[in-house]
């Protein structure tokens, strides 16, 4: 077997990798959308006045946050069929990523809501605004900019965790690389390509998030050094 | 984990160096390891490095990849910590004619611990979770065992459930209390009760 980098092989596998990249982006996008919604539910659980729900919610969030995504994937993928629920690898992957990152996003939301100063609430109280109105017109518009950097970070985070989906057989970028590598018994080019593709996608994304953060800070009248 | 602490210290300092070359190396390293996913780096270390004549054992490859990856994240935390030390401290150290190395070792480093420990604690829990990935390059860890038992017995709920619980217990009742204790200790050392 030939050692060293082979350009012809690289070019040969490039179209295959490009298609798989689309799958990766799709997986990250769908996972993120689910996570955004799940995060809202966890946030609701946290803010209800019932102590038991609060506590339960807290424990669930802590549990999901402190166990590895990989085992959660296996758990959902292998355990649900035991109870007669058979889902495709894609759906399992999306659910797990959504749940996992939903817990993180709920923390981001919480931080943002707590970042709005208490006096804003008191002022609304004094003006006799309803709770709903206070949220909609006063609190959320202020909380949203605070949440943006965190939300952006987790988008990049999800993107980088999609390779885990390959372990349960979702045909995304990393899965394609392993398949191509196994078929031709050359792992150098596929895995290196995966690395390069991830870099070219995630660095601009991270830069964009940083810029967003700066813009938000500026819009709020805070100057960041 | 020890590797990750050391690497983050070194690169965090390098990132702030005045020398452009050193700063450049650190930036490239950090961006590279933060920009690609850990799994890719693991597979690269295990399957691709042999092409260049460097054969690492699965365990070594796993530890090296984890260390380098988390070192990059840690370096950013250290950088933020150093920047958070008030400028007056640097100036005072300068005024007292401390050498640059002494300035960093005796004045700046002791002060960054209370600042960096809370984010570093989060990162350490992330590291614990990330160790599950080394199972994929055939290191025999908890995840690997769980998978093995699963493929023999097909009692998925029990074996993956147990594995999840073990990770949770390690994180919740061992790692996090220890890190909290470190935080309190560090805060007390510089004379602050709590951050």
CATH topology-level fold name of chain A: MetI-like fold
The CATH architecture of chain A comes to: Orthogonal Bundle
Oligomer: heterodimer
Any idea of the CATH class of chain A?
Answer: Mainly Alpha
Share of helix of chain A, binned: over 70%
* C-alpha termini separation of chain B: 25 Å
Number of strands of chain A: 0
Low-pLDDT sequence parts of chain A: none
Helix content of chain B: over 70%
User: How would you name the CATH homologous superfamily of chain B?
Assistant: MetI-like
Strand content of chain A: under 5%
Run of helices and strands of chain A: HHHHHHHH
What does this structure look like?
The complex is a heterodimer of chains A (225) and B (195). Helix content of chain A is 79%, strand content 0%. Chain A has 225 residues and is mostly helical. Chain A has a single domain, classed as Orthogonal Bundle (MetI-like fold). In chain A, helix 1 packs across helix 4, helix 2 crosses helix 4 and helix 7 packs antiparallel against helix 8 (188-219). Chain A starts with 6 loop residues before the first helix and ends in a 6-residue tail after the last helix. The model of chain A has no long low-confidence stretch (mean pLDDT 81). With 195 residues, chain B is mainly α. Chain B is 79% helix and 0% strand. Chain B contains eight helices and no strands. Chain B is flat. Chain B starts with a helix and ends in a 6-residue tail after the last helix. The model of chain B has no long low-confidence stretch (mean pLDDT 74). Classes of the chains: A mainly alpha (225), B mainly alpha (195). Chains A and B meet through helix 2, helix 3, helix 7 and helix 8 of A and helix 2, helix 3, helix 6, helix 7 and helix 8 of B.
